[in-house]
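Why predict the complex rather than its parts? Because the way molecules touch one another can change local conformation, and only a joint prediction can capture that. The input here totals 261 residues.
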Amino acid sequence: MASGAGHFDNLGNPCLKFHLCGVAHKEPGLEFEGIIDTGFTGFIQLPLQHAFSLKLPLEGTSSYTLADGSQTACLIVLAKTTFAGKMVVGAVSLAPGSQDILVGMGFLRQFKLGMIMVKNIVVLIDEEELEQIELKQKLDQQQKADTAATAPPATDAPPTT
Amino acid sequence: MADDPKVLDSPDKIAEEGQRLYEERHKADLEQNRRGEYVAIDVLTGNAYVARFPEQAIEEARKQAPNGVFHLIRVGAPGAFKVSFGSRHGFWGRSLRQPR
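Output of the joint prediction:
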């Protein structure tokens, strides 16, 4: 189970904390805070400078479609990423000239997370937990239906003497 | 020498070479059979490694070609990934290509 909590930063962006590990550190590596961007289909976007401190091994490049439909490319690495005690290997994009760390839909997919944002709380729920909740609801409904079926029928007729 | 487009000395050149190899060798076949999947093109050999998810494509490519330099593409899509938030800031404002 990898359910966890996020938070809102002082600009109102939903954020979460995770660890990234290159070859420079022991697992789980260094902690980062990223903005959850549901418009980003990738895993994590990391400013290029962090690749040096983490010693992330480069794999190549990847193409990106920007919001205006134009295309760009940036370097890509595979990095061990830990969130809520679970570790996956994800494709991290290295963005030169950007200071934003973004957490995309690929992150939620790989960690099998669903996200709920209410008031000032960001909750990340493991898909398995959601499935268990759904299963429990179905069982409760089934139990209620069985109880109703086996109970003696209610009658409005007055008792006979 | 630095102006030789075959010298892959920047991310843009690697990406352009990967895109060229994809379009010349793999696009027709993959877009018919593997639409929506991810392909890592080894820009040194032109070989393609296809998988359902991006990290799987890269992992498979690295396993098969330990010295490869890869460019990741999503089959049938203009880019491997879409970006919205970051496009307002610095790097993402610098486009490699204009919209088609």
